[in-house]
Amino acid sequence: MSEEKKGFFAKLISGLSKTRSNIVSGIDSIFKGFSKIDDDFYEELEEILIMGDIGVVTTEKIIEGLKEKVKENKIKEPEECKELLINTIKEQMDIGENAYEFENQKSVILVIGVNGVGKTTSIGKLAGNLKAQGKKVVLAAADTFRAGAIKQLEEWANRAGVDIISGNEGGDPGAVIYDAVGAAKARNADVLIIDTAGRLHNKKNLMEELKKIDRILEKEYPNVYRETLIVLDGTTGQNALVQAREFMNAANITGIVLTKLDGTAKGGIAVAIQSELSIPVKYICVGEQIDDLEKFNSEQFVNALFTQE
Fold it and tell me: What is the domain count for the chain?
């Protein structure tokens, strides 16, 4: 593991400390407290996982998978289950190749999510990440409804050292996207990243606005690779799942950015999201700095969840 990766893994371990004490200490006490593997043992384990925001549906899948492995391996002692449990959680998070195809060709990344989840800061960090790879990046400040959103994105564009196209506060987001697409073409940008509204002040429906943006991109920039990332706040637990499902009705979500994992006891939501929605968590954020956004690795995540500091 490179020094940079080691540094992020250490941050991840530290950031998941509350989740770990919420889940792992409870699991360890069950493994040590039970002398045999029976229904009570599984019930206690199920309760701990649900409390860690892994969710009812995913927890049921994990318990079923664990029961099968216990039977197959003829395990009798509860303490021998820990490694099997970790592997079962990893399996629930594995939904195949976690692609970052947008890095390899001209692309548009539409970033969606409700206000307050860290959407704008995630865009800034992603822009910095792509710029560091030598990509030419243009940002589009199409969240014209939230007071200060344009200024905030402009600050991140400066920090990342990338171009930004913006309009007036309260203006038409569609007009900003037209201009941004034109700029991306003229400047031969590798990636256009679009910030979108998380809430509308008027009677317009947010989901309809997203569909409109999608139509503009289909028409104006049809031959580029499309990526739609939804930003979810890890501290909101199961509510993040609800938000993702709502947005799935309006957009073809291809990946998830999970923010604020540092300091939350609800980090188990990463397991639930990937398992239940079958949409890959592509990035996680465990800090405020521009380089605190990292590609998500489910195996690394589960290892950090169970690593004692």
Answer: 2
Same domain flag for 223 and 263: yes
For residues 271 and 93, the answer to whether their CB atoms sit within 8 Å is yes
Name the token pair of 133.
């790879």
- At residue 51, φ and ψ (nearest 5 deg) are -65, -25
CB 191 within 8 A of CB 157: no
Helix (H) or strand (E) run with residue 121 in it: helix 119-132
Query: Which strands sit side by side in the sheet containing 293-295, from one edge to the other?
Result: 163-166, 137-141, 191-195, 107-112, 225-233, 255-259, 281-285, 293-295
Say if CB 233 and CB 257 are below 8 A apart.
no
Angle separating helix axes 206-220 and 173-186, nearest 10 degrees:
30
Domain that holds residue 41: 3-93
Interval 229-251: pLDDT, tens: 999 998 888 888 888 988 888 88
Distance CA 17, CA 24 (A): 10
- CATH code of the domain containing 8: 1.20.120.140
Q: What is the rounded CA–CA span in Å between residue 58 and residue 70?
A: 18
pTM above 0.90, yes or no: no
CA distance 302 to 306: 6
Evaluated on CA atoms 256, 257, 260, 262, the torsion sign reads: positive
Tell me the torsion sign for CA atoms 162, 167, 170, 174.
negative
pLDDT in tens, 62-106: 999 999 999 999 888 888 888 898 888 888 877 666 578 888 899
Q: Which two tokens stand for residue 298?
A: 């489910």
- What lies within 8 Å, CB to CB, of 132 at 6+ separation is none
Task: Choose one of 72, 93, 114: the last residue of a domain.
Answer: 93
